[in-house]
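INTERNAL AUDIT FORM
Audit reference: QA-55
Scope: verify that the stored structure record matches its stored sequence.
Auditor: D.O.
Record contents follow.
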Amino acid sequence: MNLCFIAVAPSCVKKTMSSYEQTLHLFGRWLSAELKIYTVDKISENVIRKYIDDLMVRGNLILTVMLAFAEYERGMIVERTQTGKAVARQDPNFREGRPRKFTSCQLQHALELLNSGKTYRQVEAMTGISKRTLIRADRNI
């Protein structure tokens, strides 16, 4: 194949020029393989449009395959998670969700302090239990 593409762009960095060269090389390979064009004078606007359409079709194919693999991987993750939870549920001490920061005994002591006349801020300073947690505990009891 005797295609000669010369790009003169002194402001382009070496990596960009290499990318351009590779793109033109792939275009040349596509011309010879698909259309049997071996010289520059036979390249027309229609040929370039056909190449762009071909790239879009291949790009869509690659994107579809990658999305299919991503969906498959997501399904595998969900399956492994569900299997792990099923095994963990066999343990009688298993509790799903976030572990509690304070024991029921600590919350009960804080609520007793509240009932003895202390304010929420005083109880929070004494026990380290936030006002919001105290209100939630008081409501649940």
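Auditor finding: record pair retrieved intact. The first helix runs from residue 14 to 35.
Action required: none
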